[in-house]
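The material for today's practical consists of a large collection of protein records. Getting from the letters to the tokens is the skill we practise here. To make this concrete, we reproduce a full record directly below:
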Amino acid sequence: MKKKILSVTLVIVMMLSSTISGFAEYRLARPVIEDIDIGKNSIKIDWAYVPHADEYDIYRSTSKDGKYKYIDSNDESWYRDYSIKKGTRYYYKVRAISYSDYDNSYLSK
């Protein structure tokens, strides 16, 4: 009886561990901002395409080391920010998101 319980327990543990280890097949690369175009009424940022990314979340701050606030998301490798104020310096970060694993995302610096 002990042997049967032990073997059933081992089978369950093996099933759970194989499920967990197969959860994330790859890690997303960190988006790298490549270009910033400052226009009259907007700022456009471009970053390198990240393989397997389904979406990009864009964050903005008025201080390099300050708190970054989520402003928008899209599925392109660029974003145009129209909600800017003249004379204000802005800093941006971009996060690549995979729908298959929301925690498997990376933020640009």
User: Anything to note?
Assistant: The CA atoms of residues 11 and 102 lie 29 Å apart. The first strand starts at residue 33 and ends at 38.
